[in-house]
Write a structure and sequence with these properties.
globular; about 30% helix; alpha+beta; 6-stranded antiparallel sheet; single chain; binds magnesium ion; binds adenosine-5'-triphosphate
Length: about 550
């Protein structure tokens, strides 16, 4: 029996599931738990769980039914209702996102319940479809179909944001294993979008992928090419390679716009602003979508205020708010930055298509902005919700994707001069892997009497979200010292405590160790540490950390 390839796009606000149909990918409609998006009629599964107990809950649209009651009962506290758990899952999966009884529910537990429920409903749907096809009298085949229902999804691709840490992939993988998925892989969201938009990829293409969702704006330049790359899984559809050339992101999404809309409405009230605010905030998203769908600036809609009054807001006011908050300027700035990052490899004229994905690309003026910048015939906007998940299903079916390292990595070293730690750039974002032999060599001295030597490798700068001020030193390497807490917080040490014992201990200020770094085909940073004093290797091609 051939395996079915499934894919899930777990989003901050909405999730989708799709499958490969043999010739194309198709988003699966799970009527019970999805909410139809009115503009495109897309079956979106709201990323929401309402827990009944720690292991069970209602998910998606079903969870919303309980929301009103909960909001009144649990004002301001954690409730049995969890939303936006993806963000917590990506940062620290043990953090609580909901509470039932007095028991805290972690983001990991929440994601497990959410995904398990999606897989269960999917299996049930499949079962009902196939059981119709099996005659009632054929009990044996019916029983077999029922057994197969269990663990139906055993080949799954999930999409991940570019800026996510390796820990996030591992987290998804471990949840998928727990749910009985045997073949699991992850794929970067922009690459998935590129595959999902069905652009004619019979030739090399440069694509600008704009993912503007609930929580973030991510813009990536992706290059796809036909290729029989080594290691590609052979499938009838032919191989396509996709490589991210440059990418930038910003914590600006639909939720930010909801806040702006709330402020805009509150500013129109003459009194009782703080009493009205929660009710206004709760309707902000719906009002935003309604105003986005309108065409004339004179059209309006309203908020229902506690007490029965209405607060009318017009599309004109909405447009002015978006403009005044700098939405369009910000998007344009990020676009230019991404194109700037890739300028040594291509120019604006080389971009074949602009792919818009994510619900916030439906905000008024966003599509116009891209059409103005790149010309209407290059902008693809008609699959804002499905391109990513369907691209992942296509990938699962055998398209080959070639990737690069998306984060900057540095080694924490001690600066004698400044008398504090600083960071020495090791791997720059955009480095392709596996790297050739002798790709990076560094020399280190060891302080007198020092017996332990370590090289703490850190991920820095949130995949370019924060522009860091690297300065070149006389030895040719780049160094950076964090200024302020925001900068200090964008450092994540990945191999703290991993030390090498030296014999004899350090003496003098001459270089004692030579370290050769490479990146293997599984994204592992490997190091060979050579003791210059004793002319021997202390470590040979040791795996240090997994890069992203
Ligand atoms: N018609 C619309 N007009 C304006 N905004 C919309 C519309 N439809 C959805 N949105 C907004 O899009 C956002 C959700 O988009 P999407 O489903 O792509 O996000 P997500 O994938 O869950 O989030 P992320 O990609 O950040 O993880 C929400 O903020 C929602 O309010
Ligand atoms: Mg998304």
């Amino acid at each position: 029996m051939t395996r079915t390839h499934w894919s899930i796009d777990l989003g901050t606000t909405n999730s989708l599931i799709a499958r490969w149909m043999g010739t194309h990918a198709e988003t699966v409609v799970l009527e019970d738990i999805c909410a139809r998006e009115p503009a495109w009629n897309t079956p979106l599964i709201p990323s929401v769980v309402c827990f009944e107990d720690a292991d069970r809950g209602f998910v998606g649209a079903q969870a919303f039914a309980a929301e009103e009651v909960l909001r009144a009962t649990f004002a301001g506290r954690l409730t049995p209702l969890a939303r936006s758990f993806k963000r917590v899952l990506a940062r620290d999966s043990r953090q609580p996102v909901a509470e039932i009884g007095s028991q805290a529910i972690s983001a990991r537990q929440c994601a497990t319940v959410f995904l398990r429920e999606i897989l269960r409903v999917t299996a049930e749907r499949e079962q009902s479809l196939t059981s119709h096809a099996i005659p009632r009298w054929n009990i044996l085949r019916r029983a077999l179909a029922w057994i197969r229902r269990e663990g139906l999804v055993n080949d799954l691709t999930m999409t991940v944001p570019i800026e996510s840490f390796e820990a996030y992939r591992m987290e998804l993988q471990s949840i998928a294993r727990k749910l009985g998925v045997q073949h699991f892989r992850t794929l970067d969201e922009p690459v998935a979008a590129a595959l999902g938009y069905g652009v004619d990829l019979t030739d090399d293409r440069n694509l600008l992928v704009v993912d503007f969702g609930g929580g973030t704006l991510d813009i990536a330049l992706v290059r796809t090419a036909l290729g029989g790359a080594p290691g590609a899984r052979p499938h009838g559809v032919g191989h396509r390679k996709a490589e991210v050339m440059a990418a930038r992101g910003l914590n600006l999404g639909g939720e930010t716009v909801d806040e702006w809309v709330t402020e805009m409405a509150c500013a129109k009230l003459s009194a009782h602003v703080e009493t009205m605010r929660p009710a206004i905030r709760a309707q902000a998203e719906a009002v935003k979508k309604e105003l986005s769908g309108k065409v004339l600036t004179t059209q309006d809609t309203y908020f229902r205020l506690p007490g029965g009054d209405e607060l009318v807001v017009s599309r004109q006011e909405f447009l002015e708010t978006l403009q005044a908050r700098g939405l369009y300027d910000t998007v344009e700035t990020v676009v230019s930055a991404v194109i700037g990052d890739a300028r040594h490899r291509m120019s604006v004229a080389d971009i074949d298509a602009i792919l818009l994905v994510g619900g916030s690309t439906l905000l008024p003026g966003i599509r116009d902005l891209f059409e103005r910048l790149f010309g209407a015939n290059r902008v693809h906007y008609w699959k804002p919700f499905e391109a990513v998940v369907e691209g992942a299903a296509i990938y699962g079916a055998g398209y080959y994707v070639d990737q690069i390292i998306h984060h900057d990595y540095a080694i924490r070293v001690y600066s004698e001069q400044a008398n504090c730690p600083q960071y020495e750039m090791l791997i720059k974002r955009g480095t392709a892997y596996p790297t050739p032999e002798g790709f990076e060599t560094r020399y280190y001295s060891v302080a007198p009497k020092q017996q332990l030597f370590s090289l703490p490798v850190c991920e820095v700068g949130l995949a370019g979200r924060l522009a860091l001020d690297w300065k070149q030193s006389r030895n040719g390497h780049y160094y950076w010292q964090p200024k302020g807490t925001e900068e200090a917080e964008c450092v994540m040490a990945l191999n703290e405590g991993d030390a090498i014992r030296l014999y004899p201990p350090g003496a003098g200020s001459q270089a004692r160790l030579r370290v050769d770094f490479t990146i293997d085909s599984d994204r592992w940073l490997c190091a060979t540490v050579h003791d210059l004093l004793r002319s021997r290797d202390i470590r040979t091609n040791d795996r240090v950390i997994r890069l992203r």
